């Protein structure tokens, strides 16, 4: 009771702020309530004003949530420059507390346009808080938030946005791994590949992060191997594993079988063998030679259903079947014919 009263400030429709000198800076148009704290049953405080611009309503507060037994209010409605002056609350015990009010439209300097920098507002009014961000993930250098002070200055300098790029990568997991950079800025990509004969294990690409690092983990390169190839039925292959990319195997058929398809296959980058597995089908072997005769086709093996024909030379006469057919069992349909002199069977 025996000390200067406390004064609380409540405001609407605009900002207020206290200067370094202790003055209350009020933006024009603001509704300002100054509440002098005093226990009501001990009497009524008195507000005095250092000018005669106009009369100001004074009363115990009746607002919801306020204490009508403690807060004696003076209100300035829609403050103007002429309302500036000294406002003093004096208690019945003759203790006083004065507040110098200055109604002034305080603005801070305009917020500059800077490349990549975005501000939460363009307002420069006193007490305005401005937050900053950078576009495209660039790095913010300087404060992320500034405030307009009652002095008309920002509390800090304006930030800038600096471009962030991801650099070269050293010490890749695999010596056979290569990395091709598509773009180095934030969100940029780099793709991985392996040397021939190696397979990529892990992510196929990485992204440049906002801290200037490439996203991890990186992949590795594993040597490609093909499984042992299958042997064709009634056949076999030449070659021994482990089979690496570029290794070749050769297929062969057992005796009395002929190959249908490619006789060689190569281990590919995909880990698979090239082509399709050949087939070994039953065949007839070379039937033999007819003395003084000719065959329509001479080769080591003949496919099932294949025909060969015979003829004689030097006016000799063919004795036997003139055509032989290779049957499904790998046998010829007949024995080979002979070439004989005319009338060789006559006595």
TrEMBL record:
Keyword Repeat on entry: yes
PROSITE patterns assigned to the protein according to its UniProt record, in alphabetical order: SUSHI
Entry keywords, A to Z: Disulfide bond, Glycoprotein, Repeat, Signal, Sushi
Pfam families for this protein: Sushi
The keyword Nuclease appears for this protein: no
Residue ranges annotated for the Sushi domain, each copy included: 106-163, 164-223, 224-282, 283-341
Cited Gene3D superfamilies: Complement Module, domain 1
SMART domains, alphabetized: CCP
Residue ranges of coiled coil: none
Disulfides per UniProt: 134-161, 194-221, 253-280, 312-339
PANTHER family, alphabetized: COMPLEMENT C2, SUSHI DOMAIN-CONTAINING PROTEIN
Name used for this protein in its record: Sushi domain-containing protein
Protein source organism: Photinus pyralis
């Amino acid at each position: 009771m025996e000390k200067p009263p406390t004064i609380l400030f409540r405001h609407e429709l605009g900002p207020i702020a206290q200067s370094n000198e202790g003055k209350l800076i009020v933006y024009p148009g603001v509704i300002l309530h100054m509440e002098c704290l005093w226990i009501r049953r001990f009497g009524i405080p008195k507000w005095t004003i250092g000018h005669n611009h106009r009369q100001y309503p004074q009363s115990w507060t009746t607002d919801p949530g306020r204490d009508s037994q403690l807060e004696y209010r003076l209100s300035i409605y829609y403050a103007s420059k002429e309302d500036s002056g000294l406002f003093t609350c004096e208690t019945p015990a003759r203790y006083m507390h004065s507040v110098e009010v200055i109604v002034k439209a305080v603005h801070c300097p305009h917020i500059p346009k800077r490349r990549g920098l975005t501000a939460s507002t363009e307002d420069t009014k006193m007490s305005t808080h401005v937050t900053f961000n950078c576009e495209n993930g660039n790095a913010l250098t300087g404060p992320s938030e500034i405030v307009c002070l009652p002095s008309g200055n920002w509390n800090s300098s304006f930030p800038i946005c600096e471009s962030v790029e991801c650099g070269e990568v050293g010490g890749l997991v695999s010596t056979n791994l290569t990395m091709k950079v598509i773009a180095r800025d934030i969100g940029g990509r780099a793709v991985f590949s392996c040397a021939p004969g190696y397979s990529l294990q892990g992510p196929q690409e990485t992204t440049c992060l906002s801290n200037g690092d490439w996203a991890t983990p990186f992949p590795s390169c594993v040597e490609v191997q093909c499984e042992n190839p299958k042997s064709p039925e009634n056949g076999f292959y030449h070659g021994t594993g482990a089979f690496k990319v570029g290794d070749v195997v050769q297929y062969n058929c057992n005796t009395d079988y002929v190959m249908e398809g490619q006789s060689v296959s190569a281990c590919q980058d995909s880990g698979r063998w090239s082509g399709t597995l050949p087939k070994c089908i039953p065949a007839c072997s070379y039937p033999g030679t007819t003395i003084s005769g000719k065959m329509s086709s001479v080769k080591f093996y003949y496919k099932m259903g294949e025909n060969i024909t015979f003829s004689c030379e030097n006016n000799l006469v063919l004795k036997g079947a003139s055509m032989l057919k290779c049957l499904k069992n790998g046998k010829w349909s007949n024995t080979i014919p002979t070439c004989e002199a005319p009338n060789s069977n006559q006595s």
